[in-house]
Every structure is written in structure tokens, then in C-alpha cells.
Amino acid sequence: MDTQYVAGLQQGKAPIYIVGRLGTYADASDFLDSLFINGRMATSPEIIAGLAAARTEVNLEKRAEQYQKISAEIMALAPGVPFVSAPTHLVFKAGTKGFVASPIAQESMASVHH
Fold first, then answer.
1. Residue 87 pLDDT more than 80?
2. What's the pTM value of the predicted model, to 2 decimals?
3. DSSP string across 41-94
């Protein structure tokens, strides 16, 4: 591993870098908090405060509006460049029915039957 490159990357000296993750649960806070609060992504105090407020908002409509606003602020600060999307792989026995795919790999097997 090129430690000089990694050190420069962690110091924000790379013009572009790859970042991503799979969510552990289906919620905007799971993705955004891990990258912009707990992670090392460049951000602002306004974005951090907005994430904290949205995470604790109980009104789902208002919460969605807050996350849309925060997403726009993040994109203005640090635009993303799509690089790769790795699909999950699932294998089923012939004749298996009831499986519903999830776009964020949060599939429930409760309805799956043979």
C-alpha cells in the first residue's frame, strides 16, 4: 500500500477519492451520519446541526424535507461522482416464490416460500 497516497487522501489533498458503504439499516441517518458526522468527509457546522435535527424529527414528512435540504447542501459542498454500484448476489432453489428485492439490500425473507 502506498502510505504516502493514503496519508494525503486522509488530509484532503487528493482531488477526488472513492467513498461509499452499504447501509446497516434503511434510514437516511445511517448513511449521512456515518459519512459526515462520524466519518472524515468535509462538512460544515450547519450540515452537522441539520443532520442532528433531522435524525430526531418524529414527523416523517418534515424529516424527509429536512434530509432533502441537507442533501442539497452536501452536494453543493462535496459533489459526488458515480463510480460503481455493486449488486448483492442471492441464490434461490428453483420454484422459490415471494422474494421482493430491495434497492438498499434490506430484503425480508418473511414472504419467501417454495
1. no
2. 0.57
3. ----HHHHHHHHHHHH---HHHHHHHHHHHHHHHHHHS---------------T
